[in-house]
């Protein structure tokens, strides 16, 4: 499988350093569509704050990916649902750290989460 980032230089707004407009995935054998994943521990308890929830989310995503014999290197699309716009930078930093700086098409949306203590939810698509 080969992944090729596409960021047109003309005719569309410039991509920021943490962002890619599109990712072409050539010759994947399989896709993994992961539901929105929250910052909950294995007992279903919510992380105490934004940082702990982000750590739990990425730990949970890593475990889900491993079950499918994948890693964060297989992520080709990511959507973050943030309870508050002020979470954008922390979420961005956690994503870049978890992906080792690798860029994937991503969208962040500010929403009312199903529970007040769920601060971030992330869903991904992975390919292998």
TrEMBL record:
Belongs to the RutC family. It holds the Pfam family Ribonuc_L-PSP. GO terms for molecular function: deaminase activity. One of its GO terms (cellular component) is cytosol. Transmembrane segments: none annotated. It comes from the Bacteria. Gene3D superfamilies: RutC-like. This is Endoribonuclease L-PSP.
């Amino acid at each position: 499988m080969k992944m090729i980032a596409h960021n047109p230089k003309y005719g569309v707004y410039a991509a920021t350093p943490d962002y890619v407009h599109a990712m072409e995935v050539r010759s994947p054998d399989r896709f993994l569509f992961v539901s929105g994943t929250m910052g909950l521990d294995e007992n279903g308890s919510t992380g105490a704050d934004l940082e702990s929830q982000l750590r739990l989310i990425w730990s949970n995503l890593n475990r889900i990916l491993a079950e499918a014999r994948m890693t964060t290197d297989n992520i080709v699309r990511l959507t973050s649902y943030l309870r508050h716009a002020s979470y954008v930078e922390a979420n961005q930093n956690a994503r870049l750290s978890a992906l080792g700086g690798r860029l994937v098409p991503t969208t962040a949306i500010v929403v009312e989460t199903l529970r007040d203590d769920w601060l971030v939810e992330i869903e991904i698509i992975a390919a292998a």
